[in-house]
Design a protein that fits this description.
- The two termini are 32 Å apart.
- The chain is built from five helices and eleven strands, in the order βββααββββββαααββ.
- The chain is α+β, with helices and mostly antiparallel strands and 302 residues long.
Length: 302
């Protein structure tokens, strides 16, 4: 941040999604936006589970993105306001760790409101799923809502000039691409071994959220790409997916982010043909100019 209090980093955004082959509609949702007068970016994608047991998961994904965006905007403003002073980072880290619980509670409240008016398994819709119920349950003696019907994963990030913070619950991918083309995934633990994934619909789901906290000091910041797993599953191996992410930033540098955004639907559509799944991406690419570079990342996996 310069002497006038404005950020020295400008961000250009990517945002797109396509439905999987032979699917009637996409279970994914995503969003990319700037906030705090352009000094912060919020990225998020959610992937509704989509199976017969999760027949309202497109709603769950939509509300996951809304709940994360609401909480992340508030957090981003606090990071912009207090993040310049490293003495404030321990407190901001503690707030980052508490954000998933806020998001899960907000998501469940929205699900329960919908259940109260339109029960997933029938009923008179007379409010049996009260929005005032404790998260994960309903009020009084009414039957408990089936949250699994709305099951969804969630991946999100907040980026400012001084800090990069990422969260993940369930499958999906976050790729950080440095200016020199080096790409890495803070939460990558190896190839997926099946279709089971952690979900917002699980009891105390926030306890399973993973956190990546990364101060940014000196030099240009990384580009940040987050996506549902329908994109990464379209590649033959992990290295191919990283090469795609590196290519996105390289093409943005050579042709401009607007050109990449224009091609994004075609790229995602091509991926969906191979994976058969919905594919959604949200990203932030730092515009050319002075900025910051990664240092001392902290990744919380529990």
């Amino acid at each position: 941040m310069n002497a006038t209090g404005t950020s020295t980093v400008a961000w250009e955004l990517l945002d797109g999604g396509v439905k999987g082959v032979a699917k009637k509609y996409s279970q994914d949702r995503g969003r990319a936006l700037t906030t705090a007068d352009g000094r912060a970016v919020v990225l998020t994608v959610a992937d509704g589970h989509g199976s017969r047991a999760h027949f309202r998961s497109e709603l769950g994904a939509r509300w996951a993105v809304e709940a994360f965006t609401d909480s992340a905007r508030i957090y981003a403003h606090e990071v912009v306001r207090r993040g310049q002073d490293a003495a404030n980072w321990p407190r901001l880290l503690a707030e980052a760790r508490s954000l998933p619980q806020q998001v899960v509670h907000a998501w469940r409240r929205r699900v329960l409101i919908h259940e109260a008016n339109s029960p997933a398994h029938g009923g008179n819709g007379n409010g049996s799923g009260s929005a005032d119920a404790a998260p994960g349950g309903t009020a009084g003696s009414a039957p408990e809502a089936d949250l699994a019907v709305y099951g969804s994963t969630l991946v999100g990030a907040v980026i400012t000039e001084r800090l990069l913070v990422c969260w993940q619950l369930g499958d999906g991918d976050i790729v950080l691409v440095d200016q020199d083309g080096t790409a890495h995934m803070p939460f990558y633990t190896g190839p997926d071994m099946g279709d089971e994934t952690e979900s917002l619909c699980e009891p105390e789901a926030w306890r399973k959220a993973r956190l990546h906290w990364q101060p940014l000091t000196g030099g240009p910041p990384p580009g940040v790409l987050i996506s549902t797993d329908g994109l990464s599953k379209s590649f033959a191996d992990h290295e191919g997916f990283l090469a795609f992410a590196t290519g996105v930033r390289s093409r943005a540098a050579s042709h401009g982010v607007a050109a990449v955004q224009a091609q994004l639907p075609d790229w995602l559509g091509h991926a969906a043909k191979y994976s058969g799944d919905d594919a959604t991406l949200a990203g932030a690419i730092p515009a050319p100019g002075p900025g910051t570079t990664p240092a001392h990342p902290l990744t919380d996996t529990h």
